[in-house]
Specification:
The protein is α+β, with helices and mostly antiparallel strands. The chain is built from five helices and four strands; from the N terminus they run H-E-E-E-H-E-H-H-H. It folds into two domains: 78 residues, Spore Coat Polysaccharide Biosynthesis Protein SpsA, Chain A (Alpha-Beta Complex), CATH 3.90.550.10; 34 residues, no CATH class. 34% of the residues lie in helices and 12% in strands. Strands 1, 2, 3 and 4 form a four-stranded mixed sheet that branches. The two termini are 25 Å apart.
Length: 114
Amino acid sequence: NGELVRYLASGKEGYDVVIPETGRGPEPLHAVYGKGALGAIEEALKTGDRKVVSFFGKMKVRKVAEPEVERFDPSLRSFRNINTPEDYFHFRESEKDGLLSNAGTPEDHERAGR
């Protein structure tokens, strides 16, 4: 959701991370990370800590609550979990705006070796 991403990015002044939250908790893969987050991220990776939110305690974090997120994404579709090619193609088919309509089918990707 481009509008949501732009909104999150517009609120990063003075923060290392701007992270949306839903009923499931923080959504770190949809967060906006500033340059100030780099040191803590590098340190976590060097120590083998792979949990994305593990380094948040060392940064200035702005949490964007679900009601605020819903202003831009009322159905919270931005946070849909897609783990497999089938999940992706099912998601693509469910999109009404056609933004993903030229991405091909699972068979197209298999033939292309992707």
